[in-house]
Write a structure and sequence with these properties.
Elements (H helix, E strand, L loop, with lengths): L16 E6 L5 H12 L4 E7 L4 E6 L3 H9 L6 E2 L2 H11 L18 H7 L3 H10 L4
Antiparallel strand pairs: 1-3, 1-4, 2-3
């Protein structure tokens, strides 16, 4: 019994890490929105949002690219605080993504709903506004 050794069941040892991001925050509501979004991720222990520095610090066992992707679902301009990580991220994304085709396309036809809206008469617009509920 003395010669027995405890071996972990997983191959790699996972440790908690800090992920620092630069996120544009316009109000304290943005701060709440970011905290709520990150609270849905598993493995995150704490989220610290510094409104004055526009900095979000996440501590936990997580993939930093998943954290950034989650934050970008709310703030598209979010990026890592460390510029070296941003360069690595841009290099990995640039070959796989192609720019979207220019709008309008060759075969672009406006929908029927748009043509109907344009054809409303003044009488119809008056009915819409008189029937609307206002306080």
């Amino acid at each position: 019994m003395a010669n027995m050794q405890i071996v972990p069941a997983y191959k790699t040892i996972v440790e908690a890490q800090y992920v620092e991001m630069m996120v544009p925050l316009y109000s304290y509501g943005c701060e709440k929105k970011i905290k709520k979004t990150l609270s849905n991720l598993k493995g995150i222990y704490s989220v610290n949002v510094d409104y004055y520095q526009q900095k979000v610090t996440v501590w936990g066992i997580c993939n930093k690219y998943d954290v950034l992707e989650t934050v970008r679902s709310k703030r598209k301009e979010a990026q890592f605080w460390n510029q070296e990580d941003n360069v690595v991220l841009e290099k990995s994304q640039s070959p796989s993504s192609s720019p979207p085709p220019p709008f309008p396309h060759k075969d672009f036809k406006p929908s029927l709903a748009l043509t109907k809206v344009r054809s409303l008469s003044l009488k119809a617009w008056k009915k819409v506004f008189t029937r609307s509920y206002s306080f």
